[in-house]
Amino acid sequence: MPVYVQHEVLGKVSDVFNAESIWQAPGLALFTRRPLLRDLLERSPRELRGRAPTRCFSHVTLLLAQEELDDDRHLTRGARVRDLAQSLAALHQKDFGDLLGGDDVRYDVVGTDALAPGEVEVRFGHAVYLPSAGEAILYQVSTSADSVGWHPACPIYEHQRLALLGRGPQAPAWPFDGEGAILLVNDGPDAALEVQVRPKGAFECSFDAAAGCYSITRRAGGAPQRLLMKVERVGAAQPATAPAPAKPAAVWKTRRSAPPEAELTAVPFSHRPLETDATFAPLAQFSVTLVGLALPRLSRYRDTGAIGIEIGLDRALGVAADGAETAIRFAVDSDDQLHVITGGARQPVTAPASFTPLANGKVELLAVAPDMAERYCATLLLPHPASMPVASGARLVFGRSAPMLAALRVLDAARFLQRADGAPGASADRLGLSRSAFSFEAGAGGYRIGRLSESQALFHLDAELGLVASIGAASADAPYLLPHGHHLVAGHYVLRFDA
Fold it and tell me: In CATH, what number is assigned to the domain containing residue 87?
């Protein structure tokens, strides 16, 4: 792998603001003195013809102890830092002018807590770029370990060709123990940014178009280590036809073997072959599926004492049982603010949003329609919807006290609610779901819905979860017809009624 960034700690320097003491040691004791900046640039040219350098690097970042930069800012308002950068640029131009090829010499001085006072670190190379004054940012790159907390990694400027992300301040979420790097190649505003993971073959890189981010994984021992990276174009017009953004994924991605039988798509119980010679019973032809949870606005229920509702998803991305480890949690407080929680991080979030708490699963939050926004903050789609068969021609009831579809009422427990007095809460279903909420009857033309409680809000959503209507007057004698494959929202539950 080529060296894209040359970096060297020069050790103790008599005066870190003296350009000469960083550039070249005095005297001619060439074989005894330690290498300084001029020597490092000479030993690592940008281009060679044979053994002769034909171009040198012209952009250099200088790192000093943060304490010394703070002192300079307090005492001279940063004058010594500015003088240092200008003096080094002048020495660079003087000694390497014939190897610059018309490139501008640019120096930047930054602080770091990793160096002790008197130490200097220098960085230069193919992937070190310092923008000109007023140069536009073309891309903004950010990284995350869990898709919840995103950290700015680096900007990529219009005329910058290469950027390298790895362990260090440029990738605060880097999980790979200092190994590997991500190389970003910018061939101009008319080409998509190219992403490569190095060393080749050690990592798997894929692009999730729905989430809009890259996933870089490496298996080391147990669970895969993973980094998420988002590249957002912030400057210059998009090319008329944007090429596919993830070239390396197709080249380096390990071919997955066929999934084991346990990971195949689940077959509904009613469609599984009978394993006994018991008397045959007709198969159910209809089913109801819990596809999501409508997160309530708790401000509507202040008189109940509820100050928060929190729903966790386990490592399989199902609603977590009491005491189970969670991969991600969603919470609504008494001011209707929605938060997402992963590990110890709690951050506000606004729908729509998507998260990838595990390498093999994505969780989506959908915004609710304006006519539903008075009651709900967002809809949490369940990655693994649960279904139950129902018989046709029978009038069935759904609600807090109804046994029918009780297995789909996954929030029917006190652990999801927090109260102001700290006392154990009642079932979360008490917020918005009546004891007998609605009746339904499956038939050839759809489901006949009857509203059984005057206080029960019912919303009809189409197959794509778009709002169709708020169901008002509907009874067993004058039912509301819900087409097959459409959804009904009652309380927290988004239910799909299938044929």
Answer: 3.30.2320
All residues at 6 or more sequence positions from 93 whose CB lies less than 8 Å from its CB, including other chains: 100, 105
Query: In sequence order, what are the beta bridge partners of 492?
Result: none
Same domain, 334 and 481: yes
Supply the pLDDT for residue 171.
52
Residues 346 and 477 in one domain: yes
Q: What local confidence, expressed as pLDDT, does residue 242 receive?
A: 38
Say if residue 124 is in the same domain as residue 201.
Answer: no
How many domains does the chain contain in total? Answer: 3
Q: Cα–Cα distance between 204 and 85 in angstroms, integer?
A: 40
* Burial of 131: CB neighbours in 10 Å, binned 0-12, 13-18, 19+: middle
pLDDT along the chain (499 residues), means of 10: 86 90 70 78 92 94 94 93 95 94 93 92 95 89 84 90 76 70 90 87 83 82 76 64 38 36 34 37 70 94 89 91 89 94 87 86 92 95 92 88 91 89 81 94 92 94 95 89 96 95
Last residue of a domain, one of 130, 157, 182: 130
CA atoms 32, 38, 39, 40: torsion sign? positive
Cis peptide before 189 (omega within 30 of 0): no
> Strand pairing partners for 9?
121
Buried b (16+ CB within 10 A) or exposed e, 184-213: bbbeeeeebbebbbbeeeebbbebeeebeb
Answer whether residue 70 is part of any domain. Answer: yes
User: 70 is written with which tokens?
Assistant: 């703070």
Q: Is residue 12 part of a domain?
A: yes
Contact 283, 272 (CB under 8 A): no
Q: Is residue 117 part of a domain?
A: yes
**Residue 206 sits in which domain range?**
131-254
Q: Are 249 and 320 contained in the same domain?
A: no
18: in domain: yes
Do 154 and 236 reside in the same domain of the chain? yes
pLDDT for 9 equals: 92
Q: How confident is the model at residue 236, as a pLDDT? A: 53
One domain, residues 337 and 238: no
Q: What is the CA 341 to chain-centroid distance, rounded? A: 13
